[in-house]
Amino acid sequence: MGQSGDEAGAAVEGDPRPQAQLSVVTGRTADPDSPAPSSRPAATVTIVGEAATRWARLQAGRDIPPEIRAKAAADPWAFDPDAFRAPAVPVDTPSRAAGLALLGAGGTVLDVGCGGGDAAFALAERATHVTGVDARQEMLDLFAADAAARGVPHRAVLGAWPGSAAEAGRADVVVCHHVLHNVVDLPPFLTALTAAARRGVVVEMLRQHPMAWLDPLWERFHGLVRLPPATDEDAIAVLRELGIEPEVRRWERVPRPSADPVWVTRRLCLPADRTSEVAAALAGLHRPNDLTTITWTT
């Protein structure tokens, strides 16, 4: 899951709080043998492309307006860390296949926005060591406890990405699942992923922002008309502006259980006494299960 998944350090899928404001950033394609990103000299190429600007604009538009957030009776971002526990047996997905292919006979793994460690533990059979990075301590605690129980050599790094890149160090394979939709300023985030990987990077994301399916409810209950959500195509366009041509595979995951009306009510910043209204409104909404695996070598 990534910048548990909201800030770029752990990724709780569907937590759209922006990680950073749009800014002019610099970056470059990583040299696989160079030091960790933050220990390098400043990059000399300014990257401010149309795709990066579009991504930032759409992502910034996903935040909850302060006037709505101020009326919330409960924290709309609250979540149960245990819901992000990795399965005991990894699910075979295109993302897992891509990670295993990069690992080959074996190697180290860095999971950016690790959450409970789903992405890293899916590669554990060939991983000699896994490092989990997350912005939330409760996620790292879950990751570390599960790694120990599985007998996986591991290290946990607390912090948002890319600020935590120097402490995290480099690995043979970098995985980052369900984090990109929690990032506003995407070029430095992607540049740091590339710089941290000796062999390659595997990103998994929903084809559009994970909370976009609730947009009709924001309009229904708050009169809030959202901007169109950023998509996987938008993220791929930013990669291409960085000089990276990724391999892309689109697929569908097994449908998840229906969304909990109590959770959705809280996410919409509505009082608990409106849960029945939310439940009725949810009946007509489709929750997408379309995923994209984006892979590139370094």
Automatic annotation (TrEMBL):
Residues 109-194 form the Methyltransferase domain. This is Methyltransferase domain-containing protein. InterPro entries: Methyltransf_25, SAM-dependent_MTases_sf. The lineage of its organism: Bacteria, Bacillati, Actinomycetota, Actinomycetes, Pseudonocardiales. Keywords: Methyltransferase, S-adenosyl-L-methionine, Transferase. Pfam families: Methyltransf_25 (PF13649). GO terms for molecular function: methyltransferase activity. Residues 28-42 have a biased composition (Low complexity). The keyword S-adenosyl-L-methionine applies. It comes from Pseudonocardia thermophila.
